Amino acid sequence: MGRKAKLRNFHAAKWDEPIIFELSEPGQRGILYPKVDEELKDEFGEIENLIPEGMKREKAPALPELAQPQVLRHYLRLSQQTLGQDLVIDIGLGTCTMKYSPKINEQFVRNPKVSELHPLQDTETTQGILRIMYEFEQMMKAISGMDAFSFQPGGGAMGIYANASVMKKYHEDRGEGDQRTEVITTILSHPINAAAPKTKGFKVINLMPTETGFPSIEALKAVVSERTAGIFLTNPEDTGIFNPVVKEFVDIVHEAGGLCVYDMADYNGLFGIARAKEAGVDMCQFNLHKAFSSPHGCMGPACGAQGVKQELARFLPVPTVGFDGEKYYLDYDRPDSIGKVRKFYGVIAAVIRAYAWVLALGPDGLKEVAEVAILNNNYMMKRMLEEVRGISLSWENVPERLEQARYSWQKLKEDTGVTIADINRRAVDYGLQSFFPSHHPFIIPEPYTPEPTESYSKADIDEYVEIFKKIAEEAYTNPELVKSAPHRSTISKVYDNLVTDPKDLMVTWRAYCKKRPMESKTESPN
Amino acid sequence: MGRKAKLRNFHAAKWDEPIIFELSEPGQRGILYPKVDEELKDEFGEIENLIPEGMKREKAPALPELAQPQVLRHYLRLSQQTLGQDLVIDIGLGTCTMKYSPKINEQFVRNPKVSELHPLQDTETTQGILRIMYEFEQMMKAISGMDAFSFQPGGGAMGIYANASVMKKYHEDRGEGDQRTEVITTILSHPINAAAPKTKGFKVINLMPTETGFPSIEALKAVVSERTAGIFLTNPEDTGIFNPVVKEFVDIVHEAGGLCVYDMADYNGLFGIARAKEAGVDMCQFNLHKAFSSPHGCMGPACGAQGVKQELARFLPVPTVGFDGEKYYLDYDRPDSIGKVRKFYGVIAAVIRAYAWVLALGPDGLKEVAEVAILNNNYMMKRMLEEVRGISLSWENVPERLEQARYSWQKLKEDTGVTIADINRRAVDYGLQSFFPSHHPFIIPEPYTPEPTESYSKADIDEYVEIFKKIAEEAYTNPELVKSAPHRSTISKVYDNLVTDPKDLMVTWRAYCKKRPMESKTESPN
Amino acid sequence: MVKDFIHPYIPNGIKQTKDEMLKRIGSKTIEDLYSCIPEHLRIEGRLDIPEAISSELELKQHVEAILNENITCAEYTNFLGAGCYDHYVPAICDEINSRSEFLTAYSGDTYSDLGKNQALFEYGSLMGELLDMDVVAFPTYDGGQALNTSIRMSHRITGRKQMIVPETMSKGLLMQVREYNYFMEIDFVAVDEKSGQINLQDLESKISDQTACVVIENPSYLGHIDRQGEVIGKIAHKHEAVFIVYVDPSSLGILEPPINYGADIVCGELQPLGIHMGYGTGMGGIIASKDEDAFIMNFPNHFYHIYENEKGERGFARALNERTSYAKRDDGVEFLGTNVGLWAITAAVYLSLLGPKGMYELGENIIYKSNYARRVLGQVKGLKILYPDSNSFKEFVVNFDDSKKTVTQINKQLLERKIFGGKDLSREFPWLGQSALYCVTEKTSKQDIERLGEALDEIINNK
Amino acid sequence: MVKDFIHPYIPNGIKQTKDEMLKRIGSKTIEDLYSCIPEHLRIEGRLDIPEAISSELELKQHVEAILNENITCAEYTNFLGAGCYDHYVPAICDEINSRSEFLTAYSGDTYSDLGKNQALFEYGSLMGELLDMDVVAFPTYDGGQALNTSIRMSHRITGRKQMIVPETMSKGLLMQVREYNYFMEIDFVAVDEKSGQINLQDLESKISDQTACVVIENPSYLGHIDRQGEVIGKIAHKHEAVFIVYVDPSSLGILEPPINYGADIVCGELQPLGIHMGYGTGMGGIIASKDEDAFIMNFPNHFYHIYENEKGERGFARALNERTSYAKRDDGVEFLGTNVGLWAITAAVYLSLLGPKGMYELGENIIYKSNYARRVLGQVKGLKILYPDSNSFKEFVVNFDDSKKTVTQINKQLLERKIFGGKDLSREFPWLGQSALYCVTEKTSKQDIERLGEALDEIINNK
Ligand SMILES: Cc1ncc(COP(=O)(O)O)c(C=O)c1O
Ligand SMILES: Cc1ncc(COP(=O)(O)O)c(C=O)c1O
Fold it and tell me: pLDDT tens across D320-348, in order?
């Protein structure tokens, strides 16, 4: 049965494609716009008549000029040089929950019935989309046990930020705004759990894990006080370790008068198994572009679904979606709301996709997602740890992992001098997406965090493991091969971490043309 | 201005992708269908009750079983291993008129307003599509000077076949069906100009070209007789040479009582310049998937637009599209019609795309298409002949070429032993589509027929020429490199021309599993 | 001299570029380059076609306004089939066939188009499993042309000129068959009035040592499942005629593949396998045969063969090209041209997605729902289901004679209720009276069927 | 023990596979693998969500039936703008952003996602030309967040807490600004009643050495083109405040980029550049600054920098990461998360397609048509165009006070005529009375405008 795991003789598409500016041919046109009606030109005369003095653009923007087939070709070639989840065994980007984004859902969001909707249309004409938002909110309530949702945040980070805002508003509302200035989180949490409350003005306390992979109750108790505004928890964290005493954490914070926020971006292993509600938290957020299958889109657009308990519902961003028994409506009458964190109502396309995905799976399917994600991860872990040289598991004395795991290549590095940066470049030679090591700071040396979601078959996982077996073998037998990788990618090694001075920054072609070191000029810019 | 021609450091995407059967995992599902309502199952019982005895399939088809993401991934990878026109400088496939297929036109044909139309719907509900068919017929009449069109033929070959059918019917109608048994064409014409009349029962006479690139008037006269049913001409032929005495050819055939058919598949250099009408022919066909920009789609679907003079209109396939001043309708009342050559009305998507393409360009734009196609070809020819070693032009004493040209690599072969097959494999290493040598028989040794349509920029053409300059250079300096190519393609050299005995044919996986030579078995099949 | 003509589709419209190129050529004007075309062959003046709509925005507005005049099967409830079928098209089929690479590739060879060639080999392989056959060709224009070639093959193999086809064959298909096989004699075998099954006596009486082939459709054009395939095959083979079966591939998850009841050549319409109707755009022709030299060498179509090198790398290339008209011009087998490669790839994706179980569920959905419709309509006063003694798969014939209304009248009234009624057969088969061919697919819901029943009841019985 | 759960999205649902995997792990059940989750944290029973619609066909029918309840701007004539714009989206923008590779890639690095990274670098580069600026960051969530960060940057750079914004700023944007910059004081600068231009005296009176930034929108939310940018910039700079301009990128083919009248930070909404509205899905935030260390190091966003190796190969990678919260957690600049990469790529395609001339034509279309609409509506009895003394670009304010009707009433009546009237401003800016913000883009035709004029005349004057 099934395919034998074999190493793929891969080579990336390599088009050696210039920067779009280098393809410019002055005079060419990629698209034409309507000619302005002669009658209008007669009526108003020269365009200068319509523009205040000094405001007419003097120098046309130096955009490239290409004909249409050449523009298309350029971006198609670039697309082929990109290892999207659809194309690869995208297990390496742990914490990102790289799962299959069903193509049928793309048809929904690319339907003009969605794409051509203006957010300010009379709600008489947007009943369909409001219904989906409303129904999806009911689903999310069931999935999380929370009581109200907003889909306005434009990603997980913004969802967490919005939770920090609600936390602040809550304390202000109780007259404790000035007192509750501290937020607690864990050092292993996604950086946003520190950065978002900080952005909202809180002082942040980062707890270190013990040998259990999570902080001790004592450590928590030591920092909780009347200054505590709340705690931002992730469970499981990116390590895949589940904190079984999370309820105790929550109780301690609650007792101190703080609120508890759950970061559910790593939720994929918990559908139908565990919820925010049972953990007793007050708020949470889900990344619809991760566990709920909306595609990642080269880093967005995304949606952080923000869920809160009833007591906090009045603080959610404005507007929310209501239903009066006959019609769906947008509720702007929310005097206690934190306001707006994003224009209009958020990335509704992500909501539609997530809605369709939940519908396609139903209650049993969602639980199956979680169970298979856990099974896949545990199977892979077993093979990785037993068969791959030089790798080890973090917090080895806590053997259980849910849907992902953090490993370390420290031993391999010590034995061979090969680093995670080298391994990562080499992995690309086998047709893999580069892997995610860890967020900063690196608590674990030479970290590595793969996540084999439910979208991958056993055969996929086996192929993935074989590749790392092979790379480890290479590191031990021929380290130079790994260090000088990639050899079968779109380009060979460049030194892509050299900028430390903002003066050297070249993030535009025009800056590059001005600043790039003379020796690297291969031809004069356009 | 513009990019410097540089040799591209190309490598094809190489996924080393198994055959889909090798990816099968019994039990997996790619898609689910609705469960049959319980009520229906109750009503009818087992499926056996609905199927006559012996007709229920006993053994399920041994189709592969894959989950949805794995199916998608497989075909996406295969797509990346395909050098479509959108991706490459597709100048090599001469006679195929590889031009840009505008993306906006894809939106039209993928619109449910087209894709979800059943061909037998009441014409009250298909006025839009009928209007496009009708209006496009008017355009085609103007473009060609013919008087009536059918878009039913499913490609150029079928268009020519349909013309052979009309020819036959015409003579039968005049009582000369038994007498007019011979069709004349030229050996350089596309093989279909011999094969189609032959399929229609005609004896075919293939005229050889003289040193002019086309047959002599004398040769024609020598074969014309009262048995002549007609002549199938292409002008220009795939050589790019225009026959200036075509009218004389036509007159000679007409005088003998034959009909004249123009193959307009190579029309790209003639828009707005020369037409079937002025040449005096009675019928012609255009390939909408070539000069009219409908994409080639891995060899179809396609459309051969069949155009005829008024006298022959009654023979066109049934139905045609009419307009009564208010409504468009399908006219089935055509007693003299040849009947049907394809189901319903043909590949209407190609008609819509061609319609939109003609509209986008208008009368001046169409002429510009032709002029730029000619300019591009002549520019490229100049560079090829002056700068590339070992290449020469066929019929060198006739220097004019319109939109394409046939070259010969005979000298290169004599000098270096490198053949067109070698060059073609090597061209792929530079990111080019393989080129078209010539139809059979090869009148010109080591033939090569590129066609730089109006879709390519000067920079594209320059890059293309540089590649062949380089390959010729390689042939002279390092012939083994060329002979052992490809080196940067998806696979290396395979011997892909070994089957001569039908017993060795393996066109299905199941045949391969039974027949493939033992020594090549790398693993056992699924 | 040379002027600017700036259009997004034509990069070299720029005067400066043109001048540069002309200079390199050594010509003054572009007209000089086509001076070989004599005056008398030139067009006078400008083409008489509409002026350009060169902005994409206006073009889109213009074309979509026209297309919006259509009303589609996605908007109304459709019961039309009759050779083009309103099946569900999985999202991934469209995803793959809209990929730029596949959409715009053409006839490229082993290396440049390896992916396409593999997909085409997979098409043949998957179709081979569905048909249970080893030899499957690149698909041809449509089911009709597949049948045409099947018949011609039988002629070339047997040297005979008679074909026998069922009298219930669609007139459209028949027109194609007559046109393409103009030199052959056609005999119609009668069908049983109650069952639509081939009348075996009639077949025996018509078959002879002049018979090149016996053709059946299964399911037949009128929808019933042929249950005598094996007997018919035997009769054909007794006379050394070729037995050709025109099959609906959407039935093959639940119905026996024709090879197993004796077919020599199997052909049919590809469109049901994941391809949109597109007003007929989606047609394609399946064609497959037994793995015997005589059959193989008589295909006019491409074969995508698999090759392997020492490294185990696989290539795919057209094989036995010497058969074809591309190689042999008028000495080749029939003729060959651009066919429906994109639909072959689409069907490959479809079959890969559905697998054996999906094909079964598909067939199951169709046969249950269609039979339900047959029963529901059969219960409407004034309607009669023809061929009651046979099982049907997705189509069946409804007779309206008792209602005293014509199919035209009824269909107009259904249209008002946003229903596309079945195909009018009254001109095609006058002997069936006022009859219509109704089609039910997996897309049709139980509610759709019940609504149709009610609508017909209303129309006919003024309910 | 383990059961089959067969769903197309979950390949390992097969019992046999699960068993094999469990065996390798050494566990009996999957539940064993999450025994680390204590009972009290588990959900009791099944999730209370709708049962699965696991067939794609039924899912499609279900979802599309709901979506079909919407009526769109493609069906009705739209005059809504106010922060989300109904511009034409070229076909190629959608073609590229629907490519599987781009759609489903994420944060991959230099080698695995070279194409994505190059496209993102090109986004910055193209936007740089449009803005005439060297430093352009990866875009943020939406124009509002871009403005938020711009304001925060000004605070970090100056250490000050006052911001000055025009009183005509949209209430939506203002809600975002207040929420995010909660710790800052906000002062509104008045605008001239006749022109909508910033009242410079008022600005001078409010600015101080506590001012972190002066913000203007150009064109303003109410549509008029700010003509005092240079003076305002000078006033800001005199007080060492940062001058922030929120710009509409669709205007920059014809209007001067803000850097040229003194802006330090330029931000704005990305959506006009080739991205569908999608009920607000299409939003994105442009953010760019002067090429100075203090600005650069205060961006919270990613920068895509270009690298070159000895062979001349180019890679693209995120640079100066130490600034960000990814590297520094709470010590980083603001916070960073998943933003709108796909829209960045789409905007890159859009700008590559349009080029300088396309951007000019776009602006030309908008300004002429919008001014025509302003004139047509100005001639309807009972309507008044506000801010007559300024030029407007694509939006303008219509006041209905003389008509004695509310905007709500009028818009309902327009809706009956299949027109989406302008955005009701009556609650947002009560001081404008019954006013609405009308938007005209290149998609609006002269006929659309005239039809709107007639409809309003009918509604107001009972014509
Ligand atoms: C645990 C966790 N929290 C928060 C985030 C931030 O979400 P986003 O990237 O959508 O801003 C992520 C995403 O990587 C995450 O993994
Ligand atoms: C001159 C000529 N005639 C006829 C044809 C046949 O057209 P098709 O491939 O569409 O069958 C072609 C296509 O290659 C051609 O170039």
Answer: 999 999 999 999 999 999 999 999 999 99
pTM of the complete model beyond 0.80: yes
Taking each helix axis as running N to C, give the angle between helix D446-461 and helix D407-416, from 0 to 180 degrees, rounded to the nearest 10.
120
Distance CA B439, CA C329 (A): 9
A348-387 helix and A458-477 helix, angle to the nearest 10 degrees: 50
Alpha-carbon span A312 to D130, nearest angstrom: 44
**Residues of the domain holding B294:** 108-357
Residue among B1, B16, B76 whose CB faces A25 most closely: B1
Tally C-beta pairs within 8 A across C and D.
Answer: 21
Which CATH number belongs to the domain containing residue C448 in this structure?
A: 3.90.1150.10
Among the bound ligands, name the one nearest to the CA of residue D335.
Answer: 1
Cβ of B102 under 8 Å from any chain D Cβ? Answer: yes
Contact (CB, 8 A) for C345 and B55 = no
Under 8 Å between Cβ of B361 and C42: no
Residue D188: other Cβ atoms inside 10 A: 15
CATH number for D116: 3.40.640.10
Give kind and range of the element (H or E) at residue A103.
helix A103-110
Q: Note down the domain range covering D43.
A: 15-55
List of long-range contacts for B313-320, beta carbons under 8 Å, 24+ apart: B313/B147, B313/B148, B315/B165, B315/B166, B315/B169, B315/B170, B315/B173, B316/B148, B316/B149, B316/B150, B316/B166, B317/B150, B317/B152, B317/B153, B317/B162, B317/B341, B317/B342, B318/C175, B319/B345, B320/B148, B320/B150
pLDDT, tens digit (0-9, with 9 covering 90-100), for A311-356: 999 999 999 999 999 999 999 999 999 999 999 999 999 999 999 9
Same domain, D279 and D176: yes
Q: Number of helices and strands (H, E) in chain A? A: 17, 12
Question: DSSP letter string over A9-44?
Answer: --B--B--PPPGGGG--TT--S---PPPPHHHHHHH
Identify which ligand lies nearest to the alpha carbon of A288: 1
Count Cβ atoms within 10 A of the Cβ of residue D415 and give its class: 0-12 exposed, 13-18 middle, 19 or more buried: middle
Residue nearest to atom 15 of ligand 2 (CA): B265
User: Which residue of C17, C41, C170, C227 to mutate against B (max B Cβ within 10 Å)?
Assistant: C41
Ligand 2, closest atom to CA C337?
11
**Hey, is the C-beta of B319 within 8 angstroms of any chain C C-beta?**
no
| Residues D399 and D432: beta-carbon distance below 8 Å | yes
Say if C62 falls within a structural domain: no
Count of structural domains, chain D: 3
Query: Which residue's alpha carbon is nearest to atom 1 within ligand 2?
Result: B265
Residue D398 φ then ψ, to 5°: -110, 130
Q: Is the CB of A265 under 6 A from ligand 1?
A: yes
In a domain, C450, yes or no: yes
* H/E run at residue A346: none
The CATH number of the domain where B267 resides is what? 3.40.640.10
**Tokens coding C318:** 């057209």
d(CA C124, CA C142): 16
Q: Which positions of chain C have pLDDT values less than 70?
A: 1
Residue B277 CB neighbour total at 10 angstroms: 20
- CA closest to C441 among chain D residues: D57
DSSP codes of every residue in A148-166: EEE--SSSHHHHHHHHHHH
Give the C-alpha separation, C402 to A326, whole Å.
Answer: 45
B302 and C339 within 8 Å at the Cβ level: the answer is: yes
**Hey, what are A55's tokens?**
């405001």
The shortest C-alpha distance from B109 to chain A (Å) reads 15
Question: Of the candidates D99, D102, D129, which has an alpha carbon nearest to the alpha carbon of residue D116?
Answer: D102
Minimal-distance CA residue to ligand 2 atom 12: B265
Q: What is the pLDDT of residues A61-84, one digit of tens each?
A: 999 999 999 999 999 999 999 999
Q: Find the D109 Cα to ligand 1 centroid distance in Å.
A: 17
